[in-house]
């Protein structure tokens, strides 16, 4: 599985640009510094050179941004132009201090490779002619502000074409895996991120999707409905399954994270809608009294009913993404098992192990042998509150159930995960009111990578005050009412990302990631070297 923290760090850093006033300050500083270093015959001349080259770059990038349907807004375009200007200033420094001052005429051609890559990965309608035209149009401005340097039009053109060719080779290198098509995927991801249109990336993901059958469980307790789909609410931000929790909570009182992994991420909004629109063919049933069994690393809470069994798996120290196969195991012991991953003990980089799965299996076997106690009177109480911060995605919900006076409750915190200390703290609050709480999170990924300041952040003790306030207020106003129970389940086939996709992406990151960075550096340096070599032998 790909390290999501690495991905989030990557795109948070890559797509973060400073505010315009900061970019202007950087630009002015670079112009002053480069003019001071290069101003052998006149510093004011170089100030004009860099000002007009920079201005021309901004205009050209804005024009071609429209033509190529670039994802860059004006702020990003301004920063990109500034970046290219600094590369040109560096080329001028090399020409004046290390080679020949006349060679500054070829300086803009040194950005051809990086310009090609930037346009390719940020434009919907890329053409290799675009970087060539931009740099050829820039040449007259460059020549006017190159003091007495003679024309080197041919050298400039050839070095520009060479840089563009390096760009082509770099893209071909990343695209050697014809099945995965890394450049296409990366390009669609960048465009999605820049334009804020998830369907761009979703369209690319559909090409690699796999049909997966998952069960959607629906439970009604009184007038409140619970949905527990065996599809994963990820991978990040507003792509595909990341919308699952938010969409489900529009129609249901609670979302329970049924056993599933990232391989079952729905690829698009349409697939999510198919899940949440399952109507359900409900049948009336009744709960029996809940109980629990405990092992070394996990605790299993069992809510038995006549026609189904709700099983909530708690990690004592850690838990994350239990695979769907656990539900198949549970079918050996229970009728219509609804297996829930409580997702309530976050540990960085933890992945479930075969030993963990074995323990859960034996816990289910042990639980199935426990005698069931009939519940003569079921009463319920429900409360919810909209709340959002950088860790909580929009909702807190509490369902309290009285089984012949024995109180149990499910507290749903709409977050990606939660730290064990917060879970234990809230469980103690519940016990103060005589209630055994199952505290769960939704594994909602709608905030994952939403900005450079917000990443994969579990709920923690910073959230204790607001959640405790909601919980105490709800329990102090608790009004239990008689309620019936309905249950429905339906197997749904949708397009998911599939395990093979993540394996290939992980392989591609390992195979092309580091080597790709090295190759990028080599081609960037070669663009400089070839430009200066050609400047010395061709006019």
TrEMBL record:
**Keyword Cell inner membrane in annotation:** no
Instruction: State the source organism's domain of life.
Output: Archaea
Instruction: Give start and end of each DUF2070 domain.
Output: 7-530
The answer to whether UniProt assigns keyword Transmembrane helix to this entry is: yes
Position of the signal peptide: none
Q: Recite the UniProt keywords alphabetically.
A: Membrane, Transmembrane, Transmembrane helix
> Which parts of the chain span the membrane according to its record?
21-40, 46-65, 77-97, 103-121, 128-147, 153-171, 517-538
What's the protein called, per UniProt? Answer: DUF2070 domain-containing protein
Organism whose genome encodes this protein: Geoglobus acetivorans
